Amino acid sequence: HVPQGPVCTNLGLKPGQRLTVKGKIAPNAKSFVMNLGKDSTLLGLHFNPRFDAHGDVNTIVCNSKKVEEWGAEHRETVFPFQKGGTAEITFGVNQNDVTVHLPGHQFTFPNRLNLSVFDYFDTQGDFTLQSLSWE
C-alpha cells in the first residue's frame, strides 16, 4: 500500500502561477508521486520520481490521467533526488504546459487535458511533505 500524504483541493492555480513543494525523501525510498490536476480523476500532471520501481532506476516518469485512462509516459533521466535527502520542486502553470523546476534542471510537460485551472494536489509514496506554497 502506497502511503498517502496530504491532499489539497481548491488550489485555484491558473497560468502564470506556481506551486512550490518542499519535503523529505525517505531513507529507503523506492519512489514518490505528486499529482496536479482538476481533481483525483483528472490529473494534468502525475510526477513520479523512481529510485527503483517498476523497472526504472533513478528516472522521473510523468504522465496524465483522464478518469481511468493514462496517457503516454514521459521520462526524464536527470535525477536530482537523494534517498534521505530533502526535495524542493516548483510547478509553474502555463497556458499549454506545466514547467517543472528541479534543482539545476527544468522541463515542461504538456497540458494534455487543457485544464484552465489546477485545483488538486496530492503526494504519495516515500515523501513527507513539509511545506506547500503558491504564488
TrEMBL record:
Q: Residues in domain Galectin? A: 5-135
Q: What is this protein called?
A: Galectin
Keywords for the protein's UniProt record, in alphabetical order: Lectin
The record's GO molecular-function terms, alphabetically, read: lactose binding; laminin binding
- Tagged with keyword Membrane: no
* Species in which this protein is naturally found: Malurus elegans (Red-winged fairywren)
Annotated SUPFAM superfamilies: Concanavalin A-like lectins/glucanases (SSF49899)
**Per its UniProt record, what InterPro entries does this chain match?**
ConA-like_dom_sf, Galectin-like, Galectin_CRD
- Supply the source organism's classification: Eukaryota, Metazoa, Chordata, Craniata, Vertebrata
**Which GO terms of the cellular component aspect does the record hold?**
extracellular space
